[in-house]
Amino acid sequence: MKNTKAIIAGTMVLAASTLLAACGSNSAKAADTTSTSTWTTMVGDGIQSMDPSVALDLVSGQVLTDTTETLLRYDGAVLKEGVATSVPTATNNGLTYTYHLRHSKWANGEAVTAKDFVYGWQRTVDPATKSQYNYLYSGIKNADAIMAGKKDPSTLGVKATDDYTLVVTLEHAIPYFNTMQANPVFAPQNQKFVEAQGSKYGHSASAYLSNGPYILKDWSGTGDSWTEVKNTNYWDAKDVHIKTLKTRVVKDSQTALNLYNTGKLDDAVLSGQQAAQAKTNKDYDPLKVSYIQYLQLNEKKVPAFKNTKIRQAISMAIDRQQFIKKVLNDGSMPASVVTPVGLFANPDKPSEDFATESTKTTKAVTTYNKKKAATLFAEGLKEVGESKLSITLLTSDTSADKSLGQYLQNALEQNLPGLTVAIQSVPDKAALTKSQNGDFDITVSGWFADFPDPINYLNLFTTGADGNNGSWSNAAYDKAVKLSETTDANNATKRYQDLLTAQTILNQDAGVIPLYQQVQSHLVNAKVSGLNYGANNMYNYVGAKVK
Prior knowledge:
Distance between the termini: 32 Å
Shape: globular
Structural class: alpha+beta
Strand content: 15-25%
Low-confidence stretches: 2-29
Mean pLDDT: 92
Number of helices: 17
């Protein structure tokens, strides 16, 4: 998910007030507030939207995961049934998925049916909804044409053959299709409720209807705290043991530590000095997440960046270990590849990690080597007919990104004679906009995995892709990615080799420059058990317990 998905370092008028009143009343009855079993966590920002079609940020994504039941749900690395009674196998040469749904309810007591999924999916791909996350629907029959305004949403390849059978038709095989079904963007939506809310839908707790483990409370659309209470109408309510989830926004690491030490937080996320000191705490619990931070070099704005030697030189001039130790201090890992370690494995050799395998012949490109970097940079400048290069590094204005910018500025200027680096730090949203518009020389980018497959990352950097803000292009790379999605989509062995080929090309060519894989420093109250972090970068509270 974007860090809003932060590319820079994972949204209609009241028509029936009587219906709203009924829905609100039934939702309240479904909420279990009788227990003192509570878990209190922190986030860095507030909820942006509870509309599953338009929510884009990680905070909203987690709350939607808590309060929404999609077809499938991740429990750690295991993909399990959600509203669907099982994880189906594709038929029709990978083009058809049939989901058999259990009898479950919305928080207001109404039945969740296949028609709710059809409505929700059609609404998400409808250009009028302005979803920025609907690209995950690409490959479903007619989805691309609908999103381009060329076909009606009703032509989307999803059909309710009866109340509890959902049939999805694809235009081409998507071997990871099931893994995407844990994402809230594929959630069912209650048409009657959505249309009654109109433009208010998803903008407050009362304007959102849950079918998941929890019901959102105490959120008016703004604010720095909210509560989620157990949904007694949830189909698996017997396995929801933590009755209340409380969340508050905490932006400062020292404040987070103080709140944890005084018992006001059960899970504190630390950075910098507090993270370094926390490593000796008995409650220290590092969390490796599928998030990579990397640099994009704008080849359109700075033609010299088209030179492979210059790109490789910039990569080799960065001491990632030193940066993590001196700046992050949070246990993060140096990244040699833009796909996270632990995300994906060889289908024929499960012990073989994709990211690790892809760097066997390209590790030198991301290994700090001051002498080699200077040599390559000089050679590259000569090849492009320049004697020096002045560039600007774009970052967000957070303290973490400013520190990163200063470190990169010093490292690049010291290790690459002839290079001058200025820093432009702007607010997150402005940095994201400038990055997407190509208004930068070098920019700091980041990506959280939506589902556990390398295509999450590799699709970002094909020629002309929306995520390819630096305009890097390589025909062999594009061919390998395309083969993985077409000719070899149903052959796991060949597809793995295609993805490996693409990743190796991206590594060697320094199409983007990976910096680190995030490992968050947490202090976690030992009274919790069974709380799993999923392959989709979300916590699953079903099955978790508090002593």
